[in-house]
């Protein structure tokens, strides 16, 4: 291959080549032209650097002009070239109204008695933009990783073949535990740490789940796993969750991240407590403290689900009505009437100690008989009858009642049982009024 062929082959990598006489700053501009890719002269001039300043204002992208002019100075270019190095500069030129990245590179040459510098200019727009996109993507992933990592108290990177591990901790409290930053056997180290730093009630479970064989087996079966337990941090127990995952395309390592969920757990508990108190208030009668109509409706829905599912629950319903409440309210006032209701409720509750009692109306109570109260109902209602006889003679509070046993052959819902008990109660109430 001739020197001319070599020069042409190398020149094909550039859009423009300048040959600059370093003695007088004269120059010749070459370019590749034609189908044969010939090196042809495009222009020439007597002061390369002066023409470059003029062309900079015309062609270089406005945001790059200051940097270009400050960097591409004759003195600095010659200093770099004379030291044996190559001068390089990347900037943007305006092409068809759009900025595109170009790279300028110098090479020192010697020809006969004159020194010259070869300056090659080529378009690197696609390459630079790919690099920028890659850098932006890398930065994005880095920011995401940092944001995610900031949530974790500690992260372990474990080699599942050797059990060696590295620990990364972002929590001051966790760092105070004195856990090693790296080690030869994660599972042996974690076993010791569990014994020292985990809440006693959670130790056995965590020791079992973090035994190497079980841990690796569960992780490979699902690809990830999580464990919630209490860690002793800062002198008190705090809820944390351990999350383990095996990186994609890397079966040699496991990543374990531990993050605090203590504040969430405590908020949940406070919410449950508040909700429980609210439900307790909403489902209880403020006068008698027994369950109210809202609670009865909820119980009725639950029992109906069992009936519809043909689970055939064993129960009976007793309906009670306080006799003479209107007369007491009219003649003695509502304070006396309230005491009258409370006295009736006390009789019912002390008799049916193992069954829920509901106040479903002003003077009406319902008892859901189950278990021992259901099986002993005849004796219990006999006790009620005896009390009522004594109260009649003493002119104390009395109640009328009716009871009905659930029959899966005929009863389609709890209301069917209630209706029979309610009907029986009114029959007894008629008898009471006739005997009064």
Average pLDDT confidence is 88
**Radius of gyration based on Cα positions:** 46 Å
> CATH superfamily assignment of the largest domain?
Reverse transcriptase/Diguanylate cyclase domain
CATH class of the largest domain: Alpha Beta
The number of distinct helices, counting runs of at least 4 residues, comes to 16
Question: How much helix is in the residues?
Answer: 40-55%
Number of domains: 3
CATH fold description of the largest domain: Alpha-Beta Plaits
Distance between the termini: 134 Å
- Low-confidence segments, given as residue ranges, are none
Give the amount of beta strand, in percent: 25-35%
CATH architectural grouping of the largest domain: 2-Layer Sandwich
Main β-sheet description: 6 strands, antiparallel
Q: How many beta-strand runs?
A: 17
Which structural class fits the helix and strand makeup? alpha+beta
Strand order of the largest sheet: 3-2-1-6-5-4
What overall geometry do the principal axes of the alpha carbons give? elongated
